[in-house]
Specification:
Shape of chain A: elongated
Distance between the termini of chain B: 45 Å
Shape of chain B: globular
Helix content of chain B: 40-55%
Structural class of chain B: alpha/beta
Largest sheet of chain A: 7 strands, antiparallel
Strand order of the largest sheet of chain B: 1-2-3-4-5
Strand content of chain A: 25-35%
Helix content of chain A: 25-40%
Order of helices and strands of chain B: EEHEHEHEH
Distance between the termini of chain A: 112 Å
Largest sheet of chain B: 5 strands, mixed
Number of strands of chain B: 5
Radius of gyration of chain A: 37 Å
Number of strands of chain A: 22
Oligomer: heterodimer
Strand order of the largest sheet of chain A: 1-5-6-7-2-3-4
Chain lengths: 553, 122
């Protein structure tokens, strides 16, 4: 080892060929120092994102020291390793994702001992990274990057020809390190935050419904808006339930970021699962509360959940720590009554009492999260009243969402994320004129549409059940006739006159003889359920026209 | 959303299949095949509980007849739980079909009927 021992500060465990250097207190040329200093304290550096900042630092160090190679390795705390992040002259380091242990080798020692190390002759030194040898680097000088006592990485420079890095070289490199470290740390933090934000955003998006249900008798629209800076745990969901019912939910997980978005996904699934079990909205929320209580990590959320019955037009709802829903009905629009209940996961055995109301044709239920109406320094009811005014005259769910957001989202963005969902009891037309895909799953849809239409015509339960089965049988025939490979369709028409209803089912398929006793049975049902059944088979298709006088008239 | 659900349990001598929801041409065949496939060969019979069915059409009735034939071929009986004035009862009435199997009001009655028929055989 050729170096003078007097320059060594601490050398208890250094490897072969390594010399720890003490920072020099004097630099020969004052003007050079000022110039170098400016090179690394340039305010423009702090504006750069991490990757660009590192590249810029490399260029400036390379110029200042006239070296062949420069490298920055950042400390990965979890792995307790240095990771090559930027390099000039030894780009392979970064390309190969070199990782070095702390405490061994050239860079590892710099990090472990937190000392500057100079290596005059790489061939005779304790070097772990083979790239340094492969590149035929002769001499190396490296310093730790430290911010407020915390190691964040290592920066080193190298020369392809033998070079004796002196105290002034060390001073320049240390100055560069001192300026660079906080900028790197700041950029790293921002990059991590941005990454978290992006991940939360993707997660949030992937956990919200891709498309809303298409159920006969209801119109729905929903929106989710992330906050200006953070992603939260707001969610909405609309799903079909057995017996012509539709569930609509809105919720808000306490917290932000990935954890909140992940919990939101779990709550959304839990609620949907309990809802399918045919529990009412109050009991469903209570079960989700028990679910949240059973989670290993403390969690809390608010939610409002409503079940709309498309057969009866009744809607039942309950809330858990959530803002009251709004009923949109022109001049009669109002904030709905709720029984205060604790948020999900807040108290053991929280109870969520249900309320019920009838949604008249065209009326809407509007659910929202607090991000829409909460403004710092303004009472909550002011925001809710503003929302009520904004959506009062909406005629469709889409319009309700648009009006709400345009009236209440501030110009400079949202402080909290916002979810809204509107559900409308769609108006029942006086006559049905439908063209439907000739596939078996159409039948359930036909029954839902027809049931609502019959109820609106004043049909009682018996009328509804018998007409529904007769029409469903006629449609099943039309679907069986359509055995062409191309997607086929059929027509359904229904109209009422003086207490008598007429339903026509028309297809363009070829008539098939009833298959076994089955089709005969379908025809028997039509005849038994309706007062009159006419079947007209032609070469272009089949038309079934059925009439029935409604009982109560 | 699936139109119907089938919940299958095993009683000492019988398989009990409880169907809930709606049965039409979109799912009737699957319903029949599922129940038949789940029936152990040593069961005396099958209880098809249709008390929770909101809708059943001719395709469903057709499949029930098919189930009865399949089970009969294996020496097994089919007992249907169909309460009076239920949607399934109404559909059978409208179709004018003969009863596709013994009809009782409750699952207990159905299990009793299967036990009785097996005792009669031995």
């Amino acid at each position: 080892v050729a170096e003078s021992p007097s320059r060594q500060v601490r050398k208890p465990r250094l490897g072969a060929g390594q010399i720890a250097l003490e920072p020099s207190s004097t630099i020969d040329e004052a003007s050079e120092q000022v110039r170098t200093s400016y090179r690394f304290s340039d305010p423009a550096l702090s504006e750069l994102p991490l990757e660009q900042l590192l590249d810029e630092l490399l260029v400036r160090v390379q110029e200042a020291l006239a070296v062949d190679t420069v490298a920055i390795l950042l400390y990965d705390e979890e792995a307790n390793q240095l990771v090559a992040r930027a390099a000039k002259g030894i780009e392979e380091e970064v390309e190969q994702g070199v990782r070095l242990p702390i405490g061994q080798g050239f860079a590892g020692r710099i990090a472990g001992e937190r000392v500057a190390i100079f290596i005059a002759d790489v061939d005779h030194a304790d070097i772990l990274n083979p790239i340094l040898r492969e590149k035929r680097i002769c001499s190396l000088l490296g310093v730790p990057l430290i911010v407020e006592g915390t190691l964040i990485g290592v920066m080193h420079v190298g020369s392809l020809t033998p070079r004796r890095f002196g105290p002034s070289d060390l001073a320049v490199l240390q100055l560069a390190a001192a300026r660079a470290a906080p900028a790197i740390e700041r950029a790293q933090l921002l990059a991590a935050l941005e990454h978290e934000h992006n991940v939360s955003m993707v997660l949030q998006r992937s956990l919200l419904p891709k498309r809303l249900v298409d159920v006969a008798g209801v119109g729905v629209a929903a929106r989710y808006l992330p906050a200006r800076e953070e992603v939260g745990g707001d969610w909405y969901d609309v799903f079909e339930l057995p017996r012509g019912r539709v569930g609509v939910v809105i919720g808000d997980v306490v917290g932000h970021g990935i954890a909140a978005a992940a919990l939101m996904g779990r709550l959304r699934t839990a609620l949907h699962s309990y809802a399918i079990e045919s529990h009412g909205p109050g009991r469903t929320l209570e079960l989700v509360d028990r679910f949240v209580q059973s989670l290993s990590e403390p969690a809390m959320a608010t939610a409002a959940y409503a079940v709309f019955d498309t057969y009866t037009s009744k809607i039942s709802y309950a809330t858990a720590g959530h803002l009251p829903p709004i009923a949109i009905s022109g001049a009669d629009s109002r904030v709905l009554e709720v029984t205060p209940a604790p948020p999900l996961g807040a108290f053991p055995y929280g109870r969520c009492p249900e309320h019920e109301l009838e949604l008249a044709s065209g009326e809407m239920l509007f659910l929202y999260t607090d991000g829409l109406v909460e403004r710092r320094g303004t009472p909550l009811n002011v925001g809710i009243d503003a929302l009520l005014e904004a959506v009062r005259d909406a005629r469709s769910p889409e319009e309700a969402c648009t009006l709400a957001l345009s009236a209440l989202v501030p110009r400079d963005g949202l402080r909290d994320d916002v979810a809204i969902v509107a559900l409308q009891n769609a108006a029942v037309p006086a006559e049905l004129h439908l063209r439907l895909p000739a596939e078996p799953k159409t039948l359930a849809h036909v029954r839902r549409v027809l049931r609502r239409w019959l109820v609106a015509r004043g049909a009682d339960e018996g009328d509804v059940a018998e007409v529904t089965i007769a029409v469903s049988e006629a449609c099943a025939n039309a679907i069986e006739h359509a055995y062409s490979p191309a997607p086929a369709s059929f027509e359904l028409e229904a109209f009422g006159n003086n207490g008598e209803i007429t339903v026509a089912v028309r297809d363009e398929g070829r008539w098939r003889a009833p298959r076994g006793t089955n089709r005969g049975r379908g025809l028997a049902i039509m005849v038994a359920a309706m007062d009159d059944v006419q079947i007209d088979r032609t070469s272009t298709g089949t038309e079934v026209v059925m009439r029935r006088r409604l009982r109560h008239t | 959303m699936s139109l119907a659900d089938i919940q299958i349990t095993l009683a000492p001598h019988a398989l009990v299949a409880r169907v809930t929801g709606e049965v039409d041409m979109s799912n009737a065949e699957e319903m029949g095949a599922t129940v038949i496939a789940a029936t152990p060969t040593d069961a005396q019979g099958v209880v098809l509980d249709l008390s929770g069915v909101d809708y059943l059409d001719s395709a469903g009735i057709y499949v029930i007849y098919g189930m009865r034939s399949s089970l009969q071929a294996r020496g097994q009986t089919l007992v249907l739980v169909i309460p009076p004035s239920s949607p399934v009862h109404d559909a059978l009435r409208l179709s004018g079909a003969e009863r596709p199997g013994e009809m009782v009001r409750t699952v207990d009655d159905a299990l009793y009927a299967i036990d009785r028929s097996s005792t009669a055989q031995t």
